[in-house]
Design brief:
With 154 residues, this protein is mostly helical. It contains 4 helices and no strands. The radius of gyration is 20 Å and the shape is elongated.
Length: 154
């Protein structure tokens, strides 16, 4: 009889997750190169995932060190995301028929993502991480500009 009074569900008192920044879709050019559409779309997804999980690591690392359990956890997740994103970026750069002007910054971003995850694995301090993250941001900007020039977006 005691079970008749037990609640069967609990409300979640936490706020719903932040939906992120809402951005209007950018229209594609009618003459967008098909290879660029595919490669840039895949590259954009890689950027999103890497930015999210590296950002979480960066936030946890600020004011802390690699011995902090939260940093250790976010370091592992961040490295995994970077490894996956680097692979997707390199595959995107190898899309058949892709203009080298689009592919090359994707390759550079992939190499820098790999460099960053190795620095994280070796527990290299923040300034070196920041330098590599800046290089990745520059590569991403170059890739996005190349995608735009090809009539699509990343």
């Amino acid at each position: 009889m005691g079970f008749a009074l037990a609640p069967t569900a609990f409300a979640d008192d936490t706020a719903p997750p932040d939906p992120g920044v809402q951005v209007d879709a950018v229209p594609m050019s009618d003459d967008a190169a098909p290879a660029a559409v595919v490669a840039c779309g895949n590259f954009a997804q890689a950027l999103d995932g890497a930015a999210t999980y590296y950002g979480e690591f960066s936030d946890s690392f600020e004011g802390s060190n690699y011995n902090d359990p939260a940093v250790q956890s976010s370091n592992e997740v961040g490295r995994t995301a970077l490894r996956q994103a680097a692979g997707v970026a390199m595959e995107s750069a190898g899309t058949p028929g892709l203009d080298p002007n689009v592919a090359n910054p994707m390759r550079a971003w992939s190499a820098d993502a790999t460099k960053l995850l190795l620095k994280m694995a070796l527990r290299i301090p923040g300034d070196s991480l920041n330098t590599t993250a800046t290089e990745m941001n520059n590569d991403a900007t170059a890739a996005q500009e190349a995608c735009a020039a090809a009539g699509t977006h990343a």
